[in-house]
């Protein structure tokens, strides 16, 4: 599938060296140029409960209450989409495709993506809520169909905080990954992306060959607002509907959510009246010693 | 003769200054480090006022404040810092008693030691208003915990003829919440309980000291919202909102407090508790007295409980930030919005390019949502129950306006975060103005087509002297006119007042749309109300507060209220 790599690796049964090199390099340059220009970026966006909403757990403890709550695009996915758009505007890619997996309302999220500037959308419709591994399998199938040069995802979704999907997609596809990106620089000629990653100790700079998977962190960029002219254009952009069956993905999950509960409420502090009482509490209640 | 007396008094005060009351000078916290110039008050309706203009030449040490130095000083003079040029030089009413230790011990008996505040630091903040324009010299602040205590305090103050100032969140912008001289401050901050909430009718009954934002959070958990929302919501009390008939951002949708307040409990000057705390939507039994208290700014009674009708929280809120080339387009958009968005329109605000620049320069983390800089920006908010429907309506309306050329550019907020950042721009203008230096603030109600004319006229009049900004609730015809300069100075003030008031009066506008009169505009009421109506207001004041102890020197002209 990675046609450019054939040329990079030098091919198999080759004609005489001089002609081959000339021919190859010409082709390589032309193809890579084409490829780059024709490069597609796939951005996965997730519809989640809005960041500013105070969430409540459902009384039956099966999950978080999402009825009548404001839903919007995951903030990290917005950042991912913004980066993809900037890369396209810089001339490194031709098309930005936004994809979302979920119920019919995901179309709203995709419309937001189109209003920001994505060229088209793909909606994989399903009423089940999938865990990261299943999502990764779906995205892998999509990548095999669409052939993007880059896949952008948010580093994690704010509803489950899993931070797994990007990494799993890269592993399933066998592509390099650069996660927690805080800066992305593409190199036209060398076909690589130089990514600054935010890690515990500071910043790590990685160089990944394309195609690659990049997950975005907060400081990468500030997403643009959906302007009126773009909203108008978005109305005519296509959103392709697909199902998991179309992509031939096995969605059986080996994880089952048993219960969702709220964390225990923080207890207020206790005033003690003497040192003896403090020692007594530390020993018998807090079991510190 | 008057002139001689005044000069004598001034000379005497000078002596006091020279004889080592320099410690008084350092009392004022120098928060803004803005040089403040003195201005004597000039009363237009009193020709005697003209004599005082010469006083303006004498610039005393502006940090000076006379404390009550015992009965020897006789007349206590209040030099208002960079205040309005209006009102005659306020003199302390000699009929009011001064506080003595017996009074303080009596209060301590009723309220307990903790809730009688004589601590200078705390009094410092309580004596100064939010804009740092007005400062009183009260020596006592009382913190009652319930209506009983308020009643006892007022009964005592009335019998002793001690002037009082009811105080809530102290976020008022016309100096109505701080003492002018040494009035006792009655702060209802401790009365902050929610008493009842009916989830069917949406009627909320709470004490006057509840902070607006806290009420909004409480209602949020029940699925309701307060019918009013303003920039000061983090600090203002509902009692203060009711007493000043606060407007805010949602007036266009839910109406004013006169409509949404169903009842209140107030204590009059002599300690009488008026229980008008109905929770009924309709009650046509007799004269509806609560309306007198709503907007009376604490001069007729202290509001202790409020019963207010809240609205169900609707799920779909959309916000658009659009840019227009000229004011005519803004008006047309308003008309179109009311027609096309109709029942879902919940806010319509505007700001001009000067305001936008100010906010971008002085506040952090704020960016212009629209890529181009235009002359006017409008915020349109819709609130409804059907997300897709509202979205489509708003988009269709905006796209049509775009096609017609009314709108040059715009964005729609995609999530709550983006919406808050748009609101931050509009709500942050006041804050940015404080940071920018000296500000002269006016709050006018004018016919919509005239609103921007006054801004342009004033700009022409002031030229390079100051930066004139216009923004406000376009949907309600309410302009917040602000003039920002590096320093306060009388020349500038003289160019602004009474020009602004006269301009407003000429167009039958209101010189105070929602801020109230306070002490800033106490003598300007005649620009917007006829003498006959004001005379009746004065008689009502006399009826409910014969000794005039509640919030003296404010709201009504001094000439009508004084001894």
UniProtKB/TrEMBL annotation, chain A:
Top-level taxon: Eukaryota
SUPFAM superfamilies, alphabetized: Adenine nucleotide alpha hydrolases-like (SSF52402)
Keyword vocabulary terms for this entry: Electron transport, Mitochondrion, Transport
Domain (Electron transfer flavoprotein alpha/beta-subunit N-terminal) ranges: 61-251
Family annotation (InterPro entries): ET-Flavoprotein_bsu_CS, ETF_a/b_N, ETF_b, ETF_beta_N, Rossmann-like_a/b/a_fold
Transport found in the keyword field: yes
Coiled-coil regions listed: none
Protein's recorded name: Electron transfer flavoprotein subunit beta
Taxonomic lineage from the root: Eukaryota, Viridiplantae, Streptophyta, Embryophyta, Tracheophyta
Gene name of the record: LOC104760607
From TrEMBL, chain B:
Name of the protein this chain belongs to: D-2-hydroxyglutarate dehydrogenase, mitochondrial-like
Record-linked PROSITE patterns: FAD_PCMH
SUPFAM superfamilies associated with the record: FAD-binding/transporter-associated domain-like, FAD-linked oxidases, C-terminal domain
Keywords assigned: FAD, Flavoprotein, Oxidoreductase
Annotated FAD-binding PCMH-type domain residues: 134-313
Top-rank taxon, per record: Eukaryota
Gene: LOC104729545
Cofactor: FAD
Pfam families per the UniProt record, alphabetical: FAD-oxidase_C, FAD_binding_4
Keyword Oxidoreductase set for record: yes
InterPro entries linked to this entry: FAD-bd_oxidored_4_C, FAD-bd_PCMH, FAD-bd_PCMH-like_sf, FAD-bd_PCMH_sub1, FAD-bd_PCMH_sub2, FAD-linked_Oxase-like_C, FAD-oxidored/transferase_4, Oxid_FAD_bind_N
